[in-house]
């Protein structure tokens, strides 16, 4: 006879298995992608770090109600979470055992075909330790989020070091290292990775003088060890082998020793070195105009071609740039990559992705301005635009003037009087367009009422000689193309405008740097450890 207690046990086991099976089916029904993962790390004087995670996800099938964001250690304090529409999101500590993470609940469940980006800030304690490879330095390593079964696109990491650290003091890991900038007057290192595969881990890190944190004393354990005396024998053995395996992996990755960045930092005053597209934000061009300028920069590089313009623009990425990273001769800048990533399969532009590209451009420029005079910088770039016009207007022949116009095109577009000045320069001249001027042929073939010539976009040098064009037509074509593009760059201009939101308000929680001013943050898991010789573990994450 079967005892009642045994029947109860079987019932409980059956129920548990049923729940597990249901959960598994539910998990399998959710298919999603991580469109970007931007991580911003502020190193604080007390040895804590503020992590700001900015995550963009799209649901392919099923539905998603929240996202687990992993934390590098158990000693963390959740801050504020906010989505792209300004909604405050619920964020709670969802750690379980050694899986340290927060759960961010979305404002509304995402269903098939929907996407959202959100950001969340946490403060994590005890992340900085002595740099064992650089005596006299403190160090921090950071492994941007990975997910076990989902690849992650567009990974960007920025680490802001303590005040007083200069470019000559800073050492960084060099894999994927991109640049330095300043944030609130502090030096920041930046890495950019086009994508990481499932379970792929990239070790990044910084090292800086310990004197920049005079009141901080690192823990003796280095933030990565186990206290075997506190655990039973079995747990100790498992922990030892786990730590040993992770240690070998980190040592292998850590062989890319710290090297000093090779970029110099400008003195305060005028912020030189911005591109024409970046300067367009400073000179108060409207977002559609900035997008138009990015398009023209891609046309100049012969990276895209327009297939249609009405009712909205449809573009084709040309063969050498299909990887969306550029070529050795023509590498793409970050805003050009963002523009290409905003292209849908049908060649139209995704308004929300395009808005994110403009916000990232805006935040990047604001970062670069930290510590510099905004007024002097604006005046400086207005003078550059004026000098660009001088090169065109003072050219001795029409051919030289046309070539100067081509070379200085992006700077000339910053002038609100571009149409009238172009008409003045070329009114009484005859122009022989160059087959390689994609920016010109884009306008000619798409906005000219009766085009009689089309370049060979696949082999421009074999296009044959184009017809000569009266200067007035040349000027009118440029102005019409620029103005027409600004008005039809996206199908839904209101949706594009509404997706451009100001930086979120400062959190009222413990983290002191909740605002994502540039490359904020990491999706699902960020792992950091203090020194090259210590091991680190990270909680998993992802949508649910």
Descriptive notes:
- The chain is of the alpha+beta class.
- Helix content is 32%, strand content 24%.
- The protein starts with a helix and ends with a strand.
Topology of this structure?
Elements: H1 4-29, E1 31-43, E2 49-61, E3 63-70, E4 76-83, E5 88-93, E6 101-111, E7 115-124, E8 129-130, E9 137-143, E10 152-160, E11 171-172, E12 177-183, E13 186-196, E14 204-209, H2 233-253, H3 276-282, H4 287-300, E15 304-308, E16 314-317, H5 334-341, H6 351-369, H7 374-393, H8 398-407, H9 409-412, H10 418-426, E17 430-431, H11 438-447, E18 469-470, H12 471-488, H13 493-499, E19 527-529, E20 542-543
Parallel strand pairs: 1-10
Antiparallel strand pairs: 1-2, 2-7, 3-6, 3-20, 4-5, 4-7, 5-6, 8-9, 9-14, 9-19, 10-13, 11-14, 12-13, 15-16, 17-18
């Amino acid at each position: 006879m079967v005892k009642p207690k045994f029947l109860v046990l079987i019932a409980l086991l059956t129920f548990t298995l049923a729940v597990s099976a249901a959960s598994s089916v539910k998990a399998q029904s959710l298919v999603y992608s991580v469109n970007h993962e931007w991580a911003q790390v502020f190193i604080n004087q007390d040895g804590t770090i503020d992590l700001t995670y900015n995550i963009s996800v799209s649901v392919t099938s099923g539905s998603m109600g929240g996202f687990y964001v992993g934390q590098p250690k158990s000693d963390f304090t959740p801050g504020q979470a906010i989505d792209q529409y300004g909604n405050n999101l619920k964020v709670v500590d969802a750690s379980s055992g050694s899986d340290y993470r927060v759960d961010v609940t979305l404002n509304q469940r995402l269903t098939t075909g929907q996407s959202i980006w959100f950001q969340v800030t946490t403060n994590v304690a005890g992340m900085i330790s002595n740099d064992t490879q650089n005596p006299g330095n403190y160090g921090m390593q950071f492994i941007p989020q990975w997910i076990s079964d989902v690849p992650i696109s567009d990974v960007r990491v920025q680490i802001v070091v303590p005040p007083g650290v200069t470019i000559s003091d800073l050492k960084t890991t060099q894999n994927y290292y991109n640049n330095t900038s300043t944030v609130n007057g502090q030096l920041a290192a930046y890495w950019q990775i086009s994508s990481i595969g499932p379970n792929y881990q990239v070790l990044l890190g910084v090292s800086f003088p310990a004197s920049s944190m005079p009141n901080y004393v690192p823990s003796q354990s280095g933030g990565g060890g186990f206290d075997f005396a506190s655990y039973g024998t079995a747990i100790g053995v498992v922990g030892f082998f786990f730590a040993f395996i992770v240690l070998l992996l980190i040592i292998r990755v850590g062989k890319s020793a710290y090297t000093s960045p090779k970029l110099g930092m400008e003195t305060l005053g005028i912020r030189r070195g911005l591109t024409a597209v970046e300067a367009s934000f400073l000179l108060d061009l409207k977002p559609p105009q900035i997008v138009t300028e990015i398009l023209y920069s891609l046309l100049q590089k012969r990276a895209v071609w327009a297939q249609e313009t009405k009712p909205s623009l449809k573009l084709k990425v040309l063969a050498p740039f299909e990887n969306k990273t550029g070529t050795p001769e023509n590498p793409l800048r970050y805003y050009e990559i963002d523009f290409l990533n905003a292209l849908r399969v049908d060649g139209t532009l995704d308004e929300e992705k395009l808005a994110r590209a403009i916000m990232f451009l805006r935040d990047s420029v604001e970062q670069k301005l930290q510590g510099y005079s905004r007024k002097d910088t604006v005046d400086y770039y207005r003078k550059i635009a004026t000098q660009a016009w001088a090169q065109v207007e003072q050219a001795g022949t029409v051919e030289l003037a046309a070539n100067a116009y081509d070379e200085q095109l992006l700077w000339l577009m910053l002038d609100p009087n571009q149409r009238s000045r172009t008409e003045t320069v070329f009114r009484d001249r005859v122009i022989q367009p160059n087959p390689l001027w994609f920016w010109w042929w884009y306008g000619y073939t798409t906005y000219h009422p009766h085009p009689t010539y089309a370049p060979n976009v696949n082999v421009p040098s074999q296009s044959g000689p184009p017809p000569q064009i009266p200067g007035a037509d040349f000027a009118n074509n440029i102005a019409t193309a620029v103005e027409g593009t600004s008005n039809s760059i996206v199908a839904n201009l209101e949706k594009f405008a509404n997706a451009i939101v100001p930086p979120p308000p400062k959190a009222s929680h413990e983290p002191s740097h909740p605002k994502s001013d540039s490359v904020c943050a990491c999706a699902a898991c960020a792992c950091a450890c203090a020194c090259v010789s210590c091991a680190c573990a990270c909680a998993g994450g992802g949508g649910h």
